[in-house]
Amino acid sequence: MKSYPLSRWTAGLGLCGASLVAPVALAATTGHVGVFSEYVFRGIVANGGVAVQGGIDHVGDSGLLAGVWATNTAAFGGSELDLYAGYLHKFSDTVMADVGALYYVLSEDKESPLYDVDGDGTIDQTDLDTLEFFATLFAGPVKLQAYYSDDYVGTDEEAFYYTATYTHKVNDTISVAGQVGYTHGDGAEYFYGDKYIDYSVMLNKTIREGLVFSLGFVDTNLKDEGAFVATEDEPKVMISAKQTFTF
């Protein structure tokens, strides 16, 4: 299958938002802004260099949640805006769950043809905006997440993503997080070239209240060529600084 020559634009779809929402107290509005050495989405890097990302999350007394998140991307010029809403239920101080929907808006996607969606040998004008549904379970240091889309990145095919994260608190200012994820479904496998596993290890250091510096290793087992992954994905070292604040 031919693809528009935007090799390795696979990060597009940020997912730093909703379930996404960390297990915080209800009736809270928080914001965050950060600088990242690369924009990484489910283990894969957008080769665009430094990314500036930020958002606002709100959880009401009833558990209803909503938020917005934005980043620059290497694709289409480009920017991404994520909108999400859902419901968060607190079972105890350490166990919470949320469900909801997440909509990725890629404002520049209409300006560029992408790939041969209908298989007729011509490159189609494609709308990449994607709706995903999510569910998350927070249980102490463990976070389990699942995502589903019935039209993944303009492919008109399904995609599934499951991920688990374990965070170990070393002391009051240092933590280590290990994560593993699994992507599959016809839409995802067309886009990336195959189903695949991603994994990461992150070291987080709180510099002062709300300011966290992170250093980590991210990789996948992805080797096949998809619509946007033209070569084998490579291991990468990531650094970031992120400030969180409460309104």
UniProtKB/TrEMBL annotation:
Keyword Cell inner membrane: no
Keyword check for Signal: yes
Native source species: Panacagrimonas perspica
NCBIfam families membership: gcw_chp (TIGR02001)
Lineage: Bacteria, Pseudomonadati, Pseudomonadota, Gammaproteobacteria, Nevskiales
Pfam family, one: Gcw_chp
InterPro entries in alphabetical order: CHP02001, EF_Hand_1_Ca_BS
Protein name: Uncharacterized protein (TIGR02001 family)
Signal sequence range: 1-27
Protein keywords: Signal
Superkingdom to which the source organism belongs: Bacteria
